[in-house]
Design a protein that fits this description.
Layout: H1 15-36, H2 46-79, H3 83-109
């Protein structure tokens, strides 16, 4: 079987375009872990808090990376017909999670 190395022409996103999707969520999990160990801090996202309260840190990690997987799969589906929209979706998701990480870092440094 021949493998098509030029996946861009087939509407599939490059692995590098999705790889950055895991950097910020990893930092988000780390910052959440640091913050919830501090007195007076709780998870601000009610859905993530549900997972944290019911399954602990492991549940929170599964939830956050499950969301990353969902966005990556969704972007691959969208890329089949509208590559530029898929790229913008990934960029938007990265900016949102990046803003959360920066905000968490500011709270931690207070």
């Amino acid at each position: 079987l021949a493998f098509d190395v030029n996946l861009r022409n087939r509407g599939v996103l490059d692995w590098l375009e999705e790889w950055h999707q895991t950097e910020w969520p990893s930092l988000d999990v780390f910052m959440t872990y640091l913050l919830i160990r501090q007195p007076g801090f709780t998870e601000g996202n009610p859905v993530a808090a549900y997972f944290l309260n019911h399954w602990g840190m492991k549940g929170l990690v599964y939830f956050k990376f499950g969301m990353v997987a969902f966005v990556c799969v969704l972007s691959q589906i969208i890329a089949r017909t509208h590559r530029s929209i898929a790229v913008r979706l990934l960029q938007f998701a990265t900016i949102v999670v990046g803003a959360v990480v920066i905000y968490s870092l500011m709270l931690y440094l207070r």
